[in-house]
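Blackboard transcription, Thursday session:
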Amino acid sequence: MPAPIRLRELIRTIRTARTQAEEREMIQKECAAIRSSFREEDNTYRCRNVAKLLYMHMLGYPAHFGQLECLKLIASQKFTDKRIGYLGAMLLLDERQDVHLLMTNCIKNDLNHSTQFVQGLALCTLGCMGSSEMCRDLAGEVEKLLKTSNSYLRKKAALCAVHVIRKVPELMEMFLPATKNLLNEKNHGVLHTSVVLLTEMCERSPDMLAHFRKLVPQLVRILKNLIMSGYSPEHDVSGISDPFLQVRILRLLRILGRNDDDSSEAMNDILAQVATNTETSKNVGNAILYETVLTIMDIKSESGLRVLAINILGRFLLNNDKNIRYVALTSLLKTVQTDHNAVQRHRSTIVDCLKDLDVSIKRYAPSKRWHIDTIMRVLTTAGSYVRDDAVPNLIQLITNSVEMHAYTVQRLYKAILGDYSQQPLVQVAAWCIGEYGDLLVSGQCEEEEPIQVTEDEVLDILESVLISNMSTSVTRGYALTAIMKLSTRFTCTVNRIKKVVSIYGSSIDVELQQRAVEYNALFKKYDHMRSALLERMPVMEKVTTNGPTEIVQTNGETEPAPLETKPPPSGPQPTSQANDLLDLLGGNDITPVIPTAPTSKPSSAGGELLDLLGDINLTGAPAAAPAPASVPQISQPPFLLDGLSSQPLFNDIAAGIPSITAYSKNGLKIEFTFERSNTNPSVTVITIQASNSTELDMTDFVFQAAVPKTFQLQLLSPSSSIVPAFNTGTITQVIKVLNPQKQQLRMRIKLTYNHKGSAMQDLAEVNNFPPQSWQ
Amino acid sequence: MIKFFLMVNKQGQTRLSKYYEHVDINKRTLLETEVIKSCLSRSNEQCSFIEYKDFKLIYRQYAALFIVVGVNDTENEMAIYEFIHNFVEVLDEYFSRVSELDVSFFNTVFHGTWQAHSSPYQVLVLALEDDPTSV
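(Written on the board underneath:)
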């Protein structure tokens, strides 16, 4: 049988494999060769074969048949064999295989071997995968090695001891005498591992903890030496002497100083010294500072030190490096619990960080509840400094976390019971109470103890918000709307609500008056619609940007029932249509279209609402269309127009792009008009107008479009689905095209409609886009 | 505590993997692909610490190779971040300008004693003890 190939050859061959299947084939062939070689009990090449097996194991292929071979290698006398054997044992074996127990004897012998490297290997392996039985048997040997004079071995023995303690905590006392001298080391490696050992012991047993407290002065001294010592090439990492050891010692100090005044006092100086002397220009320094801050926060440090720590964190927050900011935020979160005041100072920076939408920082919200809690905390403390759209964002978040409704509304209610001066908090609370008041009153809540709240109490608090001098007009608007919504949710207090609403019908505040009057009308004339109108808000679309566009959806609640505006999941329908389009077009270079949820309905709805309430003298009529819930939008005017109309969306319209007739057949004519935005030159907005010159209306008109892959398309909702005859009216629809590569705009369109009793369908390609529309 | 240490290239091929806690072999490849996927989807401005299931991933990119270390909650992320860099510096010394190929071919060198963050010098000595050319 020819000599098995070397590992390097194998690697080379595998690298030439171009597909997964090829690679698998090669590996299987090699596995077969290895298996037959094993069967032949070939001593010379066993080492090589096992090495190859380990490589294949790393790639993810099964390698269990090599386990016994590893054992044989371990038993061999050659160092190279032993090395691969132990490596194999570490990688392939663990306590679940029965085979590993056979290793115990080998390891025992090797622990007493004359060569330190063999002893080292054995210690490593034991420390890596030793089971509790093995550890029990061999703990004595390990302990002996912990006391030897060979620092190489002592280091490994310490780590092995850590593993032993993890597996068999009862054996901790055995290692106690050996630890006496551990900290007297000069050798950093041993020092480091000893600190690890001590840390492990202290974490596991409070007795050990008490015992080791006396080591604090020694640790402090070591740390001091590290900081004070000059440049030492052996331990230097970017100008700081052995930072890893420093971090470890700091961590141990933290554990020792927790809840203990004396130790904490002993540490104060050194901590201050580390905090001030460490260079922050390099990341290494920051790592040490981070550990120091964590330590300061955990032990019973004096207030000066705490302030120092918070300041360091504040400095971190201002740093440009994302990693540092992330780390600072997480630690600030931990400290907010204990040290509220100091953190207040950095409030603004923290809020700035909320704007920072790094996914990690965002994802740091491990659960919706946490997210809500945190934002609530921000609102309660930072209140007036919060960004304007934090309120709608929070509202959206709350609507989306359906299971959290009861919990959220309870917490918010409790929060404003005491203090309703924080405007954003009150706004959110008012909104939530309005939406989920019934949950609040019924007292069902899983996450916290339910509180008993009556309808009257809820109304009390909302009324006091209305009356209070501290509430802004916006907040009052929220409160009034909330009271109105409660009229459908609450059962006994409807009359009271009616009274409140009618009182405000003559309020001086125009906004409030208008709302009150509209609501009054709802009570009187349109009572039958009231419940439909004031239904629970549906879950809003998750918006990826932090922009205010999602607010538009809240308009859904004030539209009269006849208009089916409850944003229906428009998802399924368009995607199937898009797929059809894809099938028809067949090309690989077309991307599907995703029409957005009907956001432009409000414009037509506004008109109808106006009609309904036409007999009331409305001031500021255009404002009626947006309806109360959209008041927060006023602070961001450019985006208001986004959802309200399907008309030109940009204030800065580029003049003079000629419009084109995209399609004209069978009496249906579709014209495209273009706008470009100065703010975003790769966006083109196309407004299509469909007109019908025949004698009969075209109903159920649907327009779809597809563009080549390099473009992105967004189709907003059409103004209606009927193209009236004789050109008496048009359907308008807006298409937004993103063209980052400034390529020539091309589009395929598909039209479906009913005309003269039959369903019509047509496809067309639009190629005559004027250059100004895409250049 | 370090749970695992991976070196994976951009195509998802694992060049080196060291697990400090037992993970089933089939789960390993899955874990590795998921990890590399989350690392690849990060942009340059995002921070190097990701939360993945119940551990934290700390990754650093060196050319086409990602070094990812999975740790549990108690570790100082920045210290690990430095450690990764330290590790790479040592390799650079040893191989004089290490590259991804070296990682593949000298696999056994890397499986040294990684449990301690020893000084760079000591790590170098350790690495030199193993003679990769014999295999």
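Lecturer's comment: Chain B touches chain A through 44 residues (CB under 8 Å).
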